[in-house]
Automatic annotation (TrEMBL), chain A:
Signal peptide: none annotated. Belongs to the complex I subunit 4 family. GO terms for biological process: ATP synthesis coupled electron transport; electron transport coupled proton transport. GO terms for cellular component: endomembrane system; membrane. Residues 124-409 form the NADH:quinone oxidoreductase/Mrp antiporter transmembrane domain. InterPro entries: NADH_Q_OxRdtase_chainM/4, NADH_UbQ_OxRdtase, ND/Mrp_TM. One of its GO terms (molecular function) is NADH dehydrogenase (ubiquinone) activity. Its main location: membrane. It is a multi-pass membrane protein. Keywords: Membrane, Transmembrane, Transmembrane helix. This is NADH-quinone oxidoreductase subunit M. The chain crosses the membrane at residues 29-50, 81-99, 106-124, 130-147, 159-178, 203-222, 234-253, 265-288, 295-316, 322-343, 364-381, 401-421, 442-459.
UniProtKB/TrEMBL annotation, chain B:
It comes from the Bacteria. Residues 72-122 form the NADH-Ubiquinone oxidoreductase (complex I) chain 5 N-terminal domain. It is a multi-pass membrane protein. The chain crosses the membrane at residues 30-49, 92-109, 121-139, 145-163, 184-206, 218-241, 253-271, 283-304, 311-329, 335-357, 378-396, 416-439, 460-479, 515-533, 617-637. It comes from Sphingobacterium hungaricum. One of its GO terms (cellular component) is membrane. This is NADH-quinone oxidoreductase subunit L. It is found in: Endomembrane system; Membrane. InterPro entries: NADHpl_OxRdtase_5_subgr, ND/Mrp_TM, NU5C-like, Proton_antipo_N. Keywords: Membrane, Transmembrane, Transmembrane helix. One of its GO terms (biological process) is ATP synthesis coupled electron transport. One of its GO terms (molecular function) is NADH dehydrogenase activity. Residues 140-427 form the NADH:quinone oxidoreductase/Mrp antiporter transmembrane domain.
From TrEMBL, chain C:
It comes from Sphingobacterium hungaricum. It is found in: Cell membrane; Membrane. Its main location: membrane. One of its GO terms (molecular function) is NADH dehydrogenase (quinone) (non-electrogenic) activity. One of its GO terms (biological process) is ATP synthesis coupled electron transport. This is NADH-quinone oxidoreductase subunit K. The gene is nuoK. Coiled coil: none annotated. NDH-1 is composed of 14 different subunits. Subunits NuoA, H, J, K, L, M, N constitute the membrane sector of the complex. Its EC number is 7.1.1.-.
Length: 480, 639, 109
C-alpha cells in the first residue's frame, strides 16, 4: 500500500467519477468519502516514514524514453508534511461546501487539483514536477472563473497568465539544466549534483525564484493575489491560500536551494529583503481594508513573506519554522476564510463597515473565530507562535534588523486581525442581522477540527518538527 | 507537594474548560463553585509549596525546586522544555496570584451575579489565573512568555467583556496592541539571550551571566529590550496609556489584572533577571528615570480625574513607576515588597470602588457621589485603610514598602528621592480626594440612586475585610532594621538576589538618615491628607463640570497631558494614511499598474499591428509581391 | 523529331526569359490593379502559363523531358484551380451580386 502512485490514482479516479455526478447532494458526499479514502491512503506513508534525511517510498517508471523522462516519485521530510497538509485539508475544504449546491464538476476539479498538488510535492523528476505544477493551475482557474464573483474572468486571466509567465522562466531553467546533466535526464538528484559555476547559478536562481515568488507570492510579485482571493469562491480561496501557495515555498526547498546554492548565497540576501519588505508592506495595507477577504489576503502576503524569509535565512530554526508554518498557515487560513464565508452567507456582506456585534447572535462562532485569530497572530500555545518564533529566530540569526522589521508583524498582525474581529464580532449588532443563526452541524465540525489542530500543534509541535528536521539539516549542509 | 506542582496551573485551566463549555447550561451556583474552587485549590497547593520552600530556606537551602515535564519543541541546538521553577520569588508570587485571585473570584460571584455573561466571566478569570501561573512558574523565558502573552489575551477578553459597547472593544484592542509592542521587545531579548547564552533556562542564563563584565554591550541590549517588554506589560512611559482605558472591564478585572497581578509581571520578570540588569548600569539608570517619570506623570494626571476607576488606574500606573524606580536603584527586594503590599491595598481599593459602583447603580463619576459613609460603612472603613496604606502613612503596609524604595533612591541619587517624594505628595492628595469626594459631604446623585444605596453582600465585603487586614499588616513582612525589624522578606528572597548583591555597591544609610527620610515622607502624606480634607470636606469643593473654565495646568492634567491625542496624531493617523497610500497609490497604481502595463503593452501593440489585416486581397498580394521582390533583390545582391 | 527542338533552340534563351518575365509581370500587375475577380483569375492563368512556357523552353534546351511533364502537371492543376475558383466566384456573385474583389473584405480583424 505504500506506493506513491496510489496517492495520485485516488484523486484522479475521484475526479473521473465526480465529473459525471449531476446531483449536488450526492456529489458532496461522494467527494467527501473519496477525499477521506485519500486520507486513509496517506496514513501508511506517515506510519512507515523514517524521520531521516533519505528519500523514501521511491517509485519510478519510464515515461518518455526518447527524452529520458521518468515518472519518478518519492517522499522525504520536506515533502511529507505538505502531503499531509494537502490530503488533510481537501476533505475539510469539501466539508466547507456542504451548505452550497455545487455539482459534481466542482468536486471533480478539486480532486483533479489535489492530484496535481500531490504530484508537485512528490515529483523527483523536473519534468514531472513541471507537469504537476501546471496541472494544478488548470482546475483552480476553472473553479475561480466558473464559480467566482465580481470581475472574475479578467482577474483570473491575469492570475493565470502571471503565474504561467513565471512557470515559463522555470521551464527555461529546467531545459537548460537538462542539457547540462551528464546523462541528459531530468532527475532531481542529477540536477542537484550538477554544481554549476556561480555565474550560471545566478540565472538559474532568478529563473526559479521568480516562478516561485509569483506563486507564493513575494513582494512585488503579489498583485494578482488579493484580487484573485477576493473574487474566488470560498473553497477556491482556501485551495489557493491553504495549499497552492505552499507549492512555491516547497519549490524553494526542493528545487531552488539545492540546485543553485551559490546563487542563493549571492542573491539570497536580496530575496530576504524582498520578503521582509513584503511583511511590513502587506501588513500596513491590511490595516485599512474593509473587505474581510481582501484583508485576509493581504495578511496572507505578510505571513508567507515571513515564511519565505525564514527559508532564505538558511538557518535551521528559520527553515524548520518555515516547514511548520506552512502547515500552520494552511490550517489557520482555511478557518479564517471559512468564517468569512459563513458571515457572508448569513449577512450577505463581508464589508467590515456593515458588520458588527455578531458575537451576540453567534457566540460559538465568536469563540472559534477568536481562537483562529489568536493562532494567526501567533499567541503562544497556538500553532502560529511556534512558527513565528522559529522564523524570526532564523531571520534574527541572519540579520538582527530584518528580525526587527519582520517582528513588526507581531504588532501589525494584532492590529489588523483584531480590527477584523472587532468589526465583525464586537460592537453593536446591526438591525438587519438580528435573525442571524449561529454555526451548526458541519460548520462546527470544520471549525472544531481546525481549532484542535491549532492547539495541538501549538502544544506539541515536535510531532511535526521531527519529520522534517533531518532533511532540512542535510539541505543546509549542502548549501553551506 | 513537589509532585503536585503541575496541578497549580492545571486546575484553573480545567475550571476554564468546564465553565467555558458549560457557561450556558450550568447553574450559576455551580459555575461560581467551580470557578472559585479551582483557584482555591491552587491556593492551597501553593501554600503547601510555600511552606516547603520556607522549610528549605530555614534549613539553609536556596529553596529551589525544578520540575521538567516535556520537550515543548526542539530545533537544531535550540531546545525549549516545558518546565517549572519554584523558588522564594515565585512561591510568594504564587500566593499573591492565587490568594488575591481567590478573593476576587469570591467577590465577583456577587458583583457579576446579574450579568448575562456570568459563566463566561468565570471562565475568563480562570484562564487568566492559568496564564498568570504559567508566567510565574516558568523556568525559562519562553514558558514565561506563554504566560506573558496569555495574560495579555485574557486582559483583552476581560476589558472587552461588555463587547457590545464599541469603545470598550476598542480599549481592549488598544491594550492588546500596546502590550504586543512590549512583547516584540521581549521576543527580541529572547533571541539575543539565545544567541549569547545558548539557552533560555533561567539557571543557565544567570549562572553564565554572573561571569560577565559589568556594562557588557550585549547585556545592555538584552536588558533594554526586556525593559521594553516590561514597560508594555507594566504600563510605563511610553506604553502606559492602555491601562487607564482598560478600566472599561468589570471592576473585579481591574482589581485582579490591572492592579494586583498582571501589571506587576514586568517587575517580576526584571526581579527574576536581576543579575542581567545589575550588570548593565545604564539600563538601571534608564529604568529608574522612566520609573520616576511615570510615577510623576501618572500621579499628576490622577489629581484631576473624576472617574473613580480612572483615578485608581492612574494611581496604579504611578505605583508601578515607583516599583520600577526601586528596581532601577537596585532595591529588588523593595520593589517586590511594594508589589506585594500594592497587590493588597490596590486590590482592596478597586474592590471597594466596585462596591461603591455597585451601590450607585453603575455610576462611576465621583462628582455624583458623596456622603456614602453611612450607607456603605464596611466599604468606607476598608477603603479608608487602603487609602492610608497607599498614601504611605505608618504603620500601614504601604509606608514600609515605599520607604524602602525611597531610601534606596536616596542612597543612589537624592534627586530621585526628591522626585519620589513629590510623587508621594500627589499620591496622598488624589487618594484622599477620592475618599472625601466619595464618602464625605452630601449625596450628589439622583434620587433613584439614593433610594437604591446599600451595603454589598458578604461575598463582596469579606474579601474587602481580608484585604484590609493584609493592607494593615503587610508591612510586617519586611520591617527595616532601623525599626528593629528583621527584614524577613529580604532574607527569604536572598538566594534570588544574591548574585546581584555581590556585585552592586552595598546599600548603607545611617539609622538617623533613615529616620529623617521616613519622617519626611510620612509627614508629607499626612499634610496632603489634611490639605485635601480642608479643600473637599471643610470647603465642600466639587470638581468642575466638563466644559467649565479651568486653569491651564488643571486642564493639562484633566486631559491626561494630551498623550492619547499625541499618539493618535503621530502614530495612528500616519500609519492609517500610509496604509491608504500604499494600497491605492503604490499597490494599485504603481506595482499592479506595472503588471497591468505589461499586459496593456501587448494589447496595444496588437491593436496597432492588426491594422495590416485590412481584408483587401489586393493589398495582401501587393505585400506578397513586395516581399518576393525583396527576397529576390537580397538574393541578387548578396549571393 | 529534332526539328522542333532545333527551332526552339534557334531562338536564344534570353528571349524566352524576357518574354516570360514580361507576361508574368503583366499577370502580376493584372492581379494587383484589377478588381474584377474573373480578370484576376485570368491574370493568374497568364502567370501560370508564362511559367509553363519557360519550363518548356528550359526542357528543350537541356534535352530533359521532365520539364515538359511538369508543364502538363501544372496545366491539370490550373484547370482544377479554375474550376474551384470559378465555383467560388459564382457563390460570391450569388451572395453579393457583384464580382468586385474589394467587396470580399470580411476576413479581417
Amino acid at each position: 500500500m505504500d506506493n506513491l502512485f496510489i496517492l495520485l490514482l485516488i484523486p484522479v479516479l475521484s475526479a473521473c467519477i465526480l465529473a459525471f455526478v449531476k446531483n449536488s447532494q450526492t456529489a458532496k458526499w461522494i467527494a467527501l468519502v473519496l477525499s477521506l479514502i485519500q486520507v486513509v491512503a496517506t496514513v501508511p506513508f506517515l506510519c512507515n516514514f523514517v524521520p531521516d534525511a533519505s528519500m523514501q517510498f521511491e517509485s519510478t517508471f519510464t515515461w518518455i524514453a526518447s527524452l529520458n523522462i521518468h515518472f519518478h516519485l518519492g517522499l522525504d521530510g520536506i515533502s511529507l508534511p505538505l502531503i499531509l497538509l494537502t490530503n488533510g485539508l481537501v476533505p475539510l475544504i469539501v466539508l466547507t461546501t456542504f451548505g452550497k449546491t455545487f455539482k459534481g464538476n466542482f468536486y471533480a476539479l478539486v480532486s483533479f487539483m489535489q492530484a496535481g498538488l500531490v504530484l508537485v510535492f512528490t515529483a523527483l523528476d523536473a519534468f514531472t514536477f513541471y507537469v504537476g505544477w501546471e496541472i494544478a493551475l488548470i482546475p483552480i482557474y476553472f473553479i475561480c472563473a466558473l464559480w467566482g464573483e465580481g470581475d472574475r474572468i479578467c482577474v483570473n486571466l491575469k492570475f493565470f497568465i502571471y503565474t504561467f509567465f513565471g512557470s515559463l522562466l522555470m521551464l527555461i531553467g529546467i531545459i537548460y539544466l537538462y542539457h547540462q546533466t551528464p546523462n541528459g535526464d531530468f532527475e532531481w538528484a542529477s540536477f542537484k549534483a550538477l554544481q554549476l559555476p556561480g555565474g550560471i547559478q545566478r540565472y538559474i536562481f532568478w529563473g526559479f525564484f521568480i516562478a516561485f515568488a509569483i506563486k507564493i507570492p513575494i513582494f512585488p510579485f503579489h498583485t494578482w493575489q488579493p484580487d484573485t482571493y477576493t473574487n474566488a469562491p470560498a473553497a477556491g480561496t482556501m485551495l489557493l491560500a491553504g495549499i497552492m501557495l505552499k507549492m512555491g515555498i516547497y519549490g524553494l526547498f526542493r528545487w531552488l536551494l539545492p540546485i543553485a546554492p551559490i546563487g542563493t548565497q549571492i542573491y539570497g540576501a536580496v530575496a530576504l529583503v524582498l520578503c521582509v519588505i513584503g511583511i511590513v508592506y502587506a501588513s500596513i495595507i491590511a490595516f485599512q481594508q474593509n473587505d474581510a477577504k481582501r484583508l485576509i489576503a493581504y495578511s496572507s502576503i505578510a505571513h508567507v513573506g515571513l515564511i519565505s524569509a525564514g527559508v532564505f535565512s538558511i538557518h535551521i530554526e528559520g527553515m524548520q519554522g518555515a516547514m511548520i508554518q506552512m502547515v500552520n498557515h494552511g490550517i489557520s487560513v482555511i478557518g479564517l476564510f471559512f468564517i468569512i464565508d459563513i458571515i457572508q452567507q448569513r449577512t450577505n456582506s463581508r464589508n467590515l463597515s456593515e458588520l458588527g456585534g455578531l458575537a451576540y447572535r453567534m457566540p460559538i462562532l465568536a469563540v472559534f473565530f477568536l481562537l483562529i485569530v489568536m493562532g494567526a497572530i501567533g499567541l503562544p500555545l497556538t500553532n502560529g507562535f511556534i512558527g513565528e518564533f522559529l522564523l524570526l529566530k532564523g531571520i534574527f540569526s541572519t540579520n538582527v534588523w530584518y528580525a526587527v522589521f519582520g517582528g513588526l508583524t507581531l504588532i501589525f498582525g494584532a492590529v489588523y486581525m483584531l480590527r477584523l474581529y472587532q468589526n465583525t464580532m464586537l460592537g453593536t449588532l446591526h438591525a438587519e442581522h438580528i435573525q442571524v443563526k449561529d454555526v451548526q452541524g458541519y460548520e462546527v465540525l470544520v471549525l472544531g477540527i481546525v481549532s484542535v489542530f491549532i492547539l495541538y500543534l501549538g502544544i506539541f509541535p515536535n510531532a511535526l518538527l521531527k519529520l522534517s528536521e533531518a532533511s532540512v539539516i542535510q539541505l543546509i549542509q549542502q548549501i553551506k | 507537594m513537589i509532585e503536585l506542582i503541575w496541578l497549580i496551573p492545571l486546575i484553573p485551566l480545567l475550571g476554564f474548560v468546564v465553565n467555558g463549555l458549560g457557561r450556558n447550561y450550568l447553574p450559576k451556583k455551580l459555575i461560581a463553585i467551580i470557578g472559585c474552587g479551582a483557584v482555591l485549590t491552587s491556593f492551597i497547593i501553593s501554600i503547601a509549596l510555600f511552606s516547603e520552600v520556607y522549610q528549605d530556606r530555614l534549613a539553609g537551602g536556596d529553596g529551589q525546586i525544578f520540575k521538567n515535564y516535556f520537550d515543548w519543541f526542539t530545533v537544531g541546538n535550540l531546545n525549549v522544555s516545558f518546565s517549572f521553577l519554584i523558588d522564594p520569588l515565585s512561591s510568594i508570587m504564587l500566593l499573591i496570584v492565587t490568594g488575591i485571585g481567590f478573593l476576587i473570584h469570591l467577590y465577583s460571584v456577587s458583583y457579576m451575579s446579574h450579568d448575562d455573561g456570568f459563566g463566561k466571566f468565570f471562565a475568563y478569570l480562570n484562564l487568566f489565573i492559568f496564564f498568570m501561573l504559567l508566567l510565574v512558574l516558568g523556568s525559562n523565558y519562553l514558558i514565561m512568555f506563554i504566560g506573558w502573552e496569555g495574560v495579555g489575551l485574557c486582559s483583552y477578553l476581560l476589558i472587552g467583556f461588555w463587547y457590545k459597547n464599541g469603545s470598550f472593544a476598542s480599549a481592549a484592542k488598544k491594550a492588546f496592541v500596546m502590550n504586543r509592542i512590549g512583547d516584540l521587545g521581549f521576543l527580541l531579548a529572547v533571541f539575543f539571550i539565545l544567541d549569547t547564552f545558548g539557552s533560555l533556562e533561567f539557571s543557565t542564563v544567570f549562572s553564565q551571566a554572573t561571569g560577565m563584565t559589568s556594562g557588557d554591550s550585549t547585556l545592555l541590549l538584552i536588558t533594554i529590550l526586556l525593559f521594553i517588554g516590561a514597560s508594555g506589560k507594566s504600563a510605563q512611559i511610553p506604553l502606559f496609556t492602555w491601562l487607564p482605558d482598560a478600566m472599561a472591564g468589570p471592576t473585579p478585572v481591574s482589581a485582579l489584572i490591572h492592579a494586583a497581578t498582571m501589571v506587576t509581571a514586568g517587575i517580576y520578570m526584571i526581579a527574576r533577571s536581576n543579575i542581567l540588569f545589575t550588570l548593565s548600569p545604564i539600563t538601571m539608570q534608564l529604568i529608574a528615570v522612566i520609573g520616576i517619570a511615570t510615577a510623576l506623570v501618572a500621579a499628576f494626571i490622577a489629581i484631576t480625574q473624576n472617574d473613580i476607576k480612572k483615578v485608581l488606574a492612574y494611581s496604579t500606573v504611578s505605583q508601578l513607576g515607583y516599583m520600577f524606580l526601586g528596581l532601577g536603584v537596585g532595591a529588588f527586594t523593595g520593589a517586590f515588597f511594594h508589589v506585594i503590599t500594592h497587590a493588597f491595598f490596590k486590590a482592596l481599593l478597586f474592590l471597594g470602588a466596585g462596591s461603591v459602583i455597585h451601590a450607585m447603580s453603575n455610576e462611576q463619576d465621583m462628582r455624583n457621589m458623596g456622603g456614602l459613609k453611612k450607607a456603605l460603612p464596611i466599604t468606607y472603613v476598608t477603603m479608608l485603610i487602603g487609602t492610608i496604606a497607599i498614601a504611605g502613612i505608618p504603620p500601614l503596609s504601604g509606608f514600609f514598602s515605599k520607604d524602602e524604595i525611597l531610601a534606596h533612591a536616596f542612597f543612589a541619587n537624592p534627586v530621585l528621592w526628591g522626585l519620589g517624594l513629590l510623587a508621594a505628595f500627589f499620591t496622598a492628595f488624589y487618594m484622599f480626594r477620592l475618599l472625601y469626594l466619595t464618602f464625605f459631604g452630601k449625596f450628589r446623585g439622583t434620587e433613584a440612586q439614593q433610594s437604591h444605596l446599600h451595603e454589598s453582600p458578604w461575598q463582596m465585603t469579606v474579601p474587602l475585610i481580608i484585604l484590609a487586614i493584609l493592607a494593615i499588616g503587610g508591612g510586617l513582612l519586611n520591617v527595616p532594621e532601623a525599626l528593629h525589624g528583621n527584614h524577613w522578606l529580604a532574607s527569604f528572597l536572598q538566594p534570588v538576589f544574591a548574585d546581584s548583591q555581590a556585585i552592586a555597591t552595598p546599600f548603607h544609610l545611617s539609622h538617623e538618615t533613615e529616620y529623617i527620610l521616613m519622617a519626611v515622607s510620612a509627614l508629607a502624606a499626612i499634610a496632603m491628607a489634611i490639605f485635601a480634607y480642608r479643600k473637599y470636606v471643610s470647603n465642600n469643593e466639587i470638581p468642575k463640570a466638563d466644559g467649565e473654565e479651568t486653569g491651564a495646568l488643571y486642564n493639562l492634567s484633566y486631559k491626561k497631558l494630551y498623550i492619547d491625542e499625541l499618539y493618535d496624531k503621530v502614530i495612528v493617523q500616519p500609519l492609517n494614511a500610509a496604509s491608504r497610500f500604499l494600497y491605492k497609490v503604490v499597490d494599485k497604481s504603481l506595482i499592479d499598474g506595472l503588471v497591468n502595463g505589461i499586459g496593456s503593452f501587448f494589447v496595444f501593440s496588437g491593436k496597432g499591428i492588426r491594422q495590416l489585416q485590412s481584408g483587401y486581397v489586393t493589398f495582401y498580394i501587393f505585400m506578397m509581391v513586395l516581399g518576393v521582390i525583396a527576397i529576390m533583390l537580397y538574393g541578387l545582391l548578396y549571393s | 523529331m529534332g526539328t522542333i527542338v532545333e527551332q526552339i533552340q534557334g531562338i536564344p534563351l534570353n528571349h524566352y526569359l524576357i518574354f516570360c518575365s514580361v507576361i508574368f509581370a503583366i499577370g502580376v500587375i493584372g492581379v494587383l490593379i484589377r478588381r474584377n475577380v474573373i480578370i484576376i483569375m485570368m491574370s493568374i492563368e497568364l502567370m501560370l502559363n508564362s511559367v509553363n512556357l519557360l519550363l518548356a523552353a528550359f526542357s528543350a534546351y537541356h534535352g530533359d523531358a521532365s520539364g515538359q511533364v511538369f508543364v502538363f502537371f501544372i496545366m491539370a492543376l490550373a484547370a482544377a484551380e479554375v474550376a474551384v475558383g470559378l465555383a467560388i466566384v459564382i457563390m460570391v456573385y450569388r451572395n453579393t451580386k457583384s464580382i468586385d474583389i474589394d467587396s470580399l473584405n470580411k476576413l479581417r480583424w
